[in-house]
Amino acid sequence: MQKIYIAGHRGMVGGAIARRLQARKDAGEDLTLITRSHAELDLTNQQAVCDFMQTEKPDVVILAAARVGGIHANNTYPADFIYDNLMIECNVVHQAFAAGCRRLLQLGSSCIYPRAVHQPMREDALLTGVLEPTNEPYAVAKIAGIKLCESYNRQHGTDYRSVMPTNLYGPGDNFHPDNSHVLPALIRRFHQAAQAGDEVVTIWGSGKPRREFLHVDDMAEASLFVLDLDRATYDANTEPMLSHINVGCGTDVSIMELAQMVADVTGFRGRIANDLSKPDGTMRKLMDVSRLADMGWRARVELQTGLQETYDWFVGNQDAMRR
Ligand SMILES: NC(=O)C1=CN([C@@H]2O[C@H](COP(=O)(O)OP(=O)(O)OC[C@H]3O[C@@H](n4cnc5c(N)ncnc54)[C@H](OP(=O)(O)O)[C@@H]3O)[C@@H](O)[C@H]2O)C=CC1
Ligand SMILES: C[C@H]1O[C@H](OP(=O)(O)OP(=O)(O)OC[C@H]2O[C@@H](n3cnc4c(=O)[nH]c(N)nc43)[C@H](O)[C@@H]2O)[C@@H](O)[C@@H](O)C1=O
């Protein structure tokens, strides 16, 4: 029997991972899933995390809890983004280790790479240049998370792994008008404009930046794929001080192209305008996913299909939305 703790199981990614593991359990795998909501366990609280880990002693930890947000939230609340994420990582990784957990998977982000890095971004581009200022504090925390895992592996022989997702989306996303990422923000804005018969929808920035969007089900599948790799395979495909693995779909679109796709899905027929007072952020973020592809995993959900599904979910769940 394997005891697996999923930190952040009520979030978009943690929820998708939890559903997959529950399906495996239902199919007969000998798993015990451990979860705690944020209200039940604040992962920034060292003593609480220590008590929890010592009581539960999970065999495996999946760290999908983090303070997460789009460009505006990152830029407006930098202290929250660096403090919460550093504390969550330190507490979860160290207390998992102290409780005897040998395998852990943590989720980072594509913003760990320098803002002007060669595209597509390879894992070995880490720490080779200056970060994007709109999300530097979050990126520093995510880089620290990778180095934390690597350091425990090197000093204590643990098997702590890191995956770096590109921009994610899907059912369960955060559709907050200001603090969310671009895809859910645009779904909400274009839907409301289509319903109201508005003639103009304004998107932030120039529309020229390019982003790679991965569906959350693909991300959940990739996370478990990496977690399930035997240690020899993981170690053979990574390096002790370059241990993270990119996760993406390998293609990107401009924000204006995305906006047009969202307009079509929501039935908005008006004009798209730009608010140039808002930041563009990094001009391009496309993952080099060859490390993961060489191990046998590829994304499956097409953006058009995933966007329609996410829009349908948004329309059906507006009342139950958590933020
Ligand atoms: N969404 C994206 O585009 C991307 C996400 N990622 C990474 O993927 C991971 C999952 O992100 P995603 O699912 O989108 O994020 P969500 O915001 O949907 O989920 C994050 C979860 O973490 C929980 N959480 C936050 N702070 C604490 C805390 N102090 N104690 C306990 N729980 C806490 C949240 O609970 P509550 O809501 O109750 O606070 C929530 O359940 C994160 O590591 C993120 O950095 C990486 C790249 C892109
Ligand atoms: C996942 C990733 O997410 C963040 O980085 P980001 O990729 O810049 O994320 P974003 O989704 O917020 O924006 C993408 C682009 O889209 C434009 N844009 C247009 N209109 C809206 C809009 O209405 N909302 C938002 N949020 N952006 C908009 C926006 O101006 C930008 O050019 C970081 O938190 C970072 O730390 C991180 O890891």
From TrEMBL:
<dbReference type="Pfam" id="PF01370">
    <property type="entry name" value="Epimerase"/>
</dbReference>
<feature type="binding site">
    <location>
        <begin position="107"/>
        <end position="110"/>
    </location>
    <ligand>
        <name>NADP(+)</name>
    </ligand>
</feature>
<feature type="binding site">
    <location>
        <position position="280"/>
    </location>
    <ligand>
        <name>substrate</name>
    </ligand>
</feature>
<dbReference type="InterPro" id="IPR028614">
    <property type="entry name" value="GDP_fucose/colitose_synth"/>
</dbReference>
<keyword id="KW-0560">Oxidoreductase</keyword>
<feature type="site" description="Important for catalytic activity">
    <location>
        <position position="111"/>
    </location>
</feature>
<comment type="pathway">
    <text>Nucleotide-sugar biosynthesis; GDP-L-fucose biosynthesis via de novo pathway; GDP-L-fucose from GDP-alpha-D-mannose: step 2/2.</text>
</comment>
<keyword id="KW-0521">NADP</keyword>
<dbReference type="InterPro" id="IPR036291">
    <property type="entry name" value="NAD(P)-bd_dom_sf"/>
</dbReference>
<feature type="binding site">
    <location>
        <begin position="8"/>
        <end position="14"/>
    </location>
    <ligand>
        <name>NADP(+)</name>
    </ligand>
</feature>
<keyword id="KW-0511">Multifunctional enzyme</keyword>
<feature type="binding site">
    <location>
        <position position="204"/>
    </location>
    <ligand>
        <name>substrate</name>
    </ligand>
</feature>
<feature type="domain" description="NAD-dependent epimerase/dehydratase">
    <location>
        <begin position="4"/>
        <end position="230"/>
    </location>
</feature>
<feature type="site" description="Important for catalytic activity">
    <location>
        <position position="109"/>
    </location>
</feature>
<keyword id="KW-0413">Isomerase</keyword>
<feature type="active site" description="Proton donor/acceptor">
    <location>
        <position position="138"/>
    </location>
</feature>
<feature type="binding site">
    <location>
        <position position="181"/>
    </location>
    <ligand>
        <name>NADP(+)</name>
    </ligand>
</feature>
<dbReference type="InterPro" id="IPR001509">
    <property type="entry name" value="Epimerase_deHydtase"/>
</dbReference>
<dbReference type="GO" id="GO:0050577">
    <property type="term" value="F:GDP-L-fucose synthase activity"/>
</dbReference>
<feature type="binding site">
    <location>
        <position position="211"/>
    </location>
    <ligand>
        <name>substrate</name>
    </ligand>
</feature>
<dbReference type="GO" id="GO:0016853">
    <property type="term" value="F:isomerase activity"/>
</dbReference>
<feature type="binding site">
    <location>
        <position position="189"/>
    </location>
    <ligand>
        <name>substrate</name>
    </ligand>
</feature>
<dbReference type="GO" id="GO:0070401">
    <property type="term" value="F:NADP+ binding"/>
</dbReference>
<feature type="binding site">
    <location>
        <position position="142"/>
    </location>
    <ligand>
        <name>NADP(+)</name>
    </ligand>
</feature>
<dbReference type="GO" id="GO:0042351">
    <property type="term" value="P:'de novo' GDP-L-fucose biosynthetic process"/>
</dbReference>
<protein>
    <recommendedName>
        <fullName>GDP-L-fucose synthase</fullName>
        <ecNumber>1.1.1.271</ecNumber>
    </recommendedName>
</protein>
<feature type="binding site">
    <location>
        <begin position="165"/>
        <end position="168"/>
    </location>
    <ligand>
        <name>NADP(+)</name>
    </ligand>
</feature>
<comment type="function">
    <text>Catalyzes the two-step NADP-dependent conversion of GDP-4-dehydro-6-deoxy-D-mannose to GDP-fucose, involving an epimerase and a reductase reaction.</text>
</comment>
<comment type="similarity">
    <text>Belongs to the NAD(P)-dependent epimerase/dehydratase family. Fucose synthase subfamily.</text>
</comment>
